[in-house]
Amino acid sequence: MINLNDKNPNTNRIIHCSIIIFFFSMEKIRLFAKQTNEMIESNNFLTFLAEKLTIKKKRNKSSKTFFFLDQSIFYTNKSSEAMDRSCSQSEKQIKLIIENWLRILNIRLGWINDFNKFVIKYAKYFKLLKILRGHKDTINSVIFSSDGRKIVSSASDETVRIWDVESGKQIQIFIEHSSLFNAAEFSPDGRIIVSCSENKIIQLWDMESGKEIMKLKGHSSAVWDVNFSLDGKYIVSSSSDKTIKLWDVNSGEQLQTMIGHSSGVTSVQFSPDSQMIASASHDKTIVLWDVKTGTRLKELNGHFGLVLRAKFSFDGQYIISCSWDKTIRIWSVKSGKELKILKENFEKVRDVSYFPDGQTIVSCSWDKNISLWDVKSGTEIQKLEGHDERITCVNISPDGDKIVSSSVDCTIRIWG
Q: What pLDDT does residue 179 have?
């Protein structure tokens, strides 16, 4: 086997056709990350490389010959004449050349699996960009606006605040005395903020003026979560009173009350087409509801601790959930079956969400860390550290380029 840790500059065998270096464009990384496991399992990994990427050749003044795979690049010290002949061969022969290189490298299948994890991990490397300060108590939620330019936060300091992502400055504040805010979010057009609190009330606020538009009353206990429908016409809310309510935004009228959970309902979310609602509860279940009729469609069972979040994938085909049982679970919306469990050595998982591409998941837990996961392999691909206390919420920008998190440490952190 080749010792890649050998630092001897005279170890020419490492240089001579022993290292293939890939510098992938972001598009190629995502494609590679999505398909590598499948190719390996079907023994088509080499075919995948040869068929998906177009090979072009370029020489420099040294003896090395550089080969470009579309926007990717590798090099070898094989003779120019040999490579001239190789590049003029058919696609079948190119596959054989790649296979021969891998044989020379003596790469085992296990190394390929590790390489797959390596490539996925560096598809997007997040780092801390900004720390936003202003809240005086635990921040319970943070969410991007639909254009990704603003963030709304809600906290136990009786305020909801709006922040500019680019500058990190606070640009608006809504104050409700004697009210601990549990959640807040933007309407799809960004003009209205909806918030919910421990005082049983849902409030609508004008984004520009900062004035309250209306109060929605109906829950008999603390309201834990709120969510706008995609068209902005409806709001769904969940409460510790075990109910879910559907509201008309324009009139403030209560349209539906959904009853079925045996304990407080921690989160609610509309499906992307606004035809269903997913709810999570302290009763350890996730329920899918029909928006028009308010009827219960499916109950997802599997968690053995209270469920804190249940969210749809962007295509509406899957549900991702997290729980105090220290697991993240992926479910099929169509069948209601559990498809995958992600479980590492972390504490209670507080929040979880899909990236827009559906290939990555972000989660936060009470161990003060944020984790990024590859959906297909179920492996943790990056861990973000920095908060001083438990993390309460994590959200992804619409373009998938930024992550925002909130914490008991009273800070908001933007990662990108």
A: 84
**Is there a contact between 56 and 72 (Cβ–Cβ < 8 Å)?**
no
The alpha carbon of 115 is separated from its chain's Cα centroid by a whole number of angstroms, namely 22
Q: List, by residue range, all CATH 2.130.10.10 domains of the chain.
A: 128-415
Taking a C-beta distance cutoff of 8 angstroms, is the pair 70, 54 a contact? Answer: yes
Cα 195 to Cα 181: distance, rounded to the nearest angstrom: 7
* Three-state secondary structure call for residue 92: helix
Q: What is the CATH number assigned to the segment(s) 128-415?
A: 2.130.10.10
Dihedral over Cα of 104, 106, 112, 115: its sign: negative
Residue pointed to by tokens 């190394």: 111
Question: At 102, phi and psi to the nearest 5?
Answer: -65, -35
Express each pLDDT in 183-201 by its tens digit.
999 999 999 999 999 999 9
Average pLDDT of the segment spanning 309-313:
98
Rounded to 5°, angle at Cα 374 from 370 and 378: 100
Burial state string for 376-411 with b = 16 or more CB within 10 A and e = fewer than 16: bbeebbbebebbeebbbbbbbbeebebbbbbbbbbb
pLDDT exceeds cutoff 70 at 35: no
pLDDT, one tens digit per residue, over 57-111 is 334 444 333 333 333 333 334 444 444 444 444 444 444 445 444 444 444 444 4
Find, among 203, 198, 202, the residue nearest to 213 by Cα. 203
